[in-house]
Known about the structure:
The complex is a heterodimer of chains A (222) and B (266). Chain A is of the alpha/beta class and 222 residues long. Chain A is 33% helix and 27% strand. Chain A has eight helices and ten strands. Helix content of chain B is 83%, strand content 0%. The longest helix of chain B is centred in the first third of the chain and has 26 residues, at 7-32. Chain B starts with 6 loop residues before the first helix and ends with a helix.
Amino acid sequence: MNEILSLKQLSFSYEDKSILENVNLSIKKGDFVAITGVNGAGKSTLLKLILGILSPKQGEIEILGEPMKQFNKWQKVGYLSQQVLKKHQQFPATCEEIVKANLFSQIGFLRFPTKKHKEKARAALEAVGMAGYEKKLIYQLSGGQQQRVMLAHVLVSEPELIILDEPTTGVDQEAITAFYELLKKLNQEKQMTIIMVTHEMQKSLEYVNRQIYLQEKQVLEA
Amino acid sequence: MEIFQYAFMRRAFIVGIILAIIIPCIGVTVVLKRLSMMGDALSHSSLAGVTIGLLLGINPVLGAMISCIVAAFGIEIIRKKIPQHAEIAIAIIMSTGIGIAGVLSGFVKNTANFNSFLFGSIVAISDFELYLVIGIGLIVLLAFILLYKELFFMSFNEKGAELAGVPVGLVNSIFTILIAITVAIAARTVGSLIVSAMMVVPVACAMQWAKSYRQTVVFSALFGVCFMIVGLCLAYYVGLKPGGTIVLTGVAFFMISIMIKKFYRR
Lengths: 222, 266
């Protein structure tokens, strides 16, 4: 399966306010896509449509080869939202606990994690350069380190598609560069498909292989 | 010890310790999901069930349990109807609960019985209430242990949990019932007006010292038990109301925790 995501003639409106009109987009395996646009252009709406949180008024969405309405393999989609990153400012959990939580689909409902799951969580932290931070409380880390831990949380379930909603908000430039380099490495070495909504239009262009700009209810490809 | 010579005090300790373990366990999720006001709304709503129970001649604890479950789901329904003003749901349900309790309490003949639900009556627990607390306490604890990782995941990333396959709707419904029945059984013993404080104060203390989520849960329960034991002993020997003494013990410890932490940070 080469096509990971496909939007065909997609339209969406909030009551009378049209946000997207006849949008077509195809994302292939191994793409690293940045979605940019001014505030209110519809970036978050587009993500919500891709995640099935909103339903299109018109058009079709296919994700990992299946129509959205039939799609139920959500554990193959890793999602990291801006809100989750903000919430961690005070959340009393260790990095290992945060990462291990996303192994739910492998552990199972009402079951308990084993040593194997603990090792997977450690390996995911190592993959994002956070080895040795397993027992640290997440809110004691810097913004950039928290981002990496959250990326490990997403990666641990071995998703085929990663969706990041403004992952660099509130982080300094140095940490943003390191985070983008890490994403590029994961994309190139593991052929991971990444869709990232970002305000960093210029900066992200150095790392992604596709940049999509939302303007006047349409997607424009740079 | 003199305090254990009396059957009512032994009973108070058994019931108190069970509640002191389960209330903070529920409280950890309540606090981390920012639902502290929900505990308040349910505890006030339980009073409506108490008055209905007293008027109809059924066990008031059972009445409180039913009214708490109805109130908890009422909050969820209103939230879904007006998602842009979700916080209003708690205020509406709380006001309804207080309103019903206020109006119907005028018809209750034995006001002393009704008042005992406001601040609790931990030293006047019947055999039925003792067994009810033991039974429900075990159910709540078992459910909490089984849903431990699901509740943790949902507390910090509900959408992520849903994508990972956690049956979020089912877990939320079970958790809502757990809060409701915990508040209801605690209403009789520690009091409706105090149970929400017991849900929050031990957790707030635990968060000052814990180095992980697991420690937060364990410390919350341990602090809860300590506050209960110290509070009951103080109440017995100094002649204070138990419910309020237990909560004030917790609040005092919280203040001391903050001061110690501030001192060490210097």
